Amino acid sequence: MNIQEKYEKLIYYFKEISKVPRNSKHEEKIANYLCDFANKLGLWYIKDENNNVLIKKEASKGYEERKIILFQAHTDMVCEKTVESSHNFEKDAIEIVENNGLLKAKDTTLGADDGIGVAYLMLLLSDNEIKLPAIECLFTTEEEIGMNGARSFDYSNISAHYLINLDGEEENTAIVGCAGGVSVYYEKSINVEDEVENVYKLSISGLFGGHSGVDIDKGRINSNYLAAKILNNIENVRLLSFVGGNKDNAIANVTEVIFSTSMKNLDESLNKALEDIEVTEADKDLTIDIEEIEYNGKCISIEESKNIITLILNLKQNVIEYSKDVEGLVESSGNVGIVKVQNGNVLVLESLRSSVDTRKDEIKEENNNLAESIGFSIKEEGAYPGWKYNPNSKLEKVYIDSYKKNHNAEEPIVCAIHAGVECGMIYEKLPHLDMISLGPNVKDVHTVNETLYLDSCKLMLKTLLDMIKNLD
Question: What pTM was computed for the model?
Answer without folding.
Answer: 0.70
